[in-house]
Amino acid sequence: MPKLNRILSALAVATAMVLPAHAQDTIKFKAIGQPLATGLIQKNKEQPFFENFAAKTGLPIEVDYKPIDTLGIKDTEQLRVMKAGLFDIVSLRISQNSRDEPTLLGLDLVGASPDYATGRKVAKAYFDTVDARLQQQFNVKLLGVWPFGPQILFCKKPISKLADIKGMKVRTYDQNLAKFIELVGGTPVPISFADTHQSLSLGVVDCAITGPSSANSAGWPEVTTHQMPLGFQMALNGYAISMKAWNSLKPDQQAKLKTAFEGLTDDIWTYSESLFQDALNCNTGKDPCTTGKKFNLVNVPPSAADIELVRSAVSKVSLPVWAEVCDKSNPTCSQKWSATVGPVLGLAAK
């Protein structure tokens, strides 16, 4: 018996030594990041956060982070690969995945978020609706929403007003924006961000829409001549985690993770706004220009009529077009949008 007691005591000590270490075993997650081609938000905010994940979150989590354009996965397939369990966290490209889940696009209808302050209010108002839908349909939980910033017009032909794009081919990235370009008289051409520089260079399109900082990073001013700083959409993106990964964490760990992502997205909102004005300056060769390369685009200030045309797009085009599509797959889609985002924009609920 004494020998057995000694063995049991030794096992008890060994178990006591193992348990704390086991409790702190590193959790490993796989994450999809934004494309490298999108520039400074990916480079200076997102990637450092994921590469220093344990320090940023205070959790024993190590993340294998890969920008999506290094993975051989299309940015329109993010929700599908998450649902299939291939990744744990995704830097979700909202408009690009709206074909798989139209509810997403309610975050960023054309004309709904002409500035950062309004964009924040819209994102906050609609966050819970999107989160619930992603959990239901894709087993994915939304952790935060952030903007690349106002998406503006770049053209390789002279323009003096928005109506000048009539008859021109314009690169777009979602159906909502495409319908608006049609309204103005342009021909929308869906092209991925990575392929747009070449498409402008070869004349596949005459104009293209993106944020000024992303355009600067990707060299669009090399193949365009005019820039119109009129925001069509805020280019909202999000961070989401698979419910399997989320449920593997304890409640206190979930709270820490949520707080860390809220901090990251708050930081990106602020950074995005500073980048926007600086990039507008860089693209037209003005100072201060601290974040990009100087070019010599002609800046075309939008007129009051241009601004009103985009603002009115919500009720005239983007909301009705989106509602028809979204309500087919999600019967309460537009109703929930009108109840949550409608008041933010001063639109009466239907």
Task: Characterise this structure.
With 350 residues, the chain is an alpha/beta fold. It has 2 domains: 23-147 and 235-274, Bacterial extracellular solute-binding protein, family 7 (D-Maltodextrin-Binding Protein, domain 2, 3-Layer(aba) Sandwich), CATH 3.40.190; 152-233 and 277-328, Bacterial extracellular solute-binding protein, family 7 (D-Maltodextrin-Binding Protein, domain 2), CATH 3.40.190.170. It has 14 helices and 11 strands. The strands form 2 sheets. Strands 7-6-8-5-9-11 form a 6-stranded mixed beta sheet, with helices on both faces. Strands 2-1-3-10-4 form a 5-stranded mixed beta sheet, with helices on both faces. Strand 6 (169-172), helix 6 (175-184) and strand 7 form a beta-alpha-beta unit. The protein starts with a helix and ends in a 5-residue tail after the last helix.
Number of domains: 2
Please count the helical segments. Answer: 14
From the N-terminal CA to the C-terminal CA, the straight-line distance is 80 Å
Order of helices and strands: HEHHEHEHEEEHEHEHEEHHEHHHH
| Mean of all residue-level pLDDT scores | 92
CATH level 3 topology of the largest domain:
D-Maltodextrin-Binding Protein, domain 2
- Share in β-strands: 15-25%
Superfamily (CATH H level) name of the largest domain: Bacterial extracellular solute-binding protein, family 7
Q: What structural category arises from helix and sheet content?
A: alpha/beta
Q: What CATH architecture label of the largest domain applies?
A: 3-Layer(aba) Sandwich
> So what's the overall shape?
globular
**Structure summary, number of beta strands:** 11
Largest sheet: 6 strands, mixed
CATH class descriptor of the largest domain? Alpha Beta
**Unreliable spans:** 1-5, 7-23
Measured as a percent range, the helix fraction is 40-55%
Radius of gyration, in angstroms, nearest whole number: 23 Å
What strand order characterises the main sheet?
Answer: 7-6-8-5-9-11
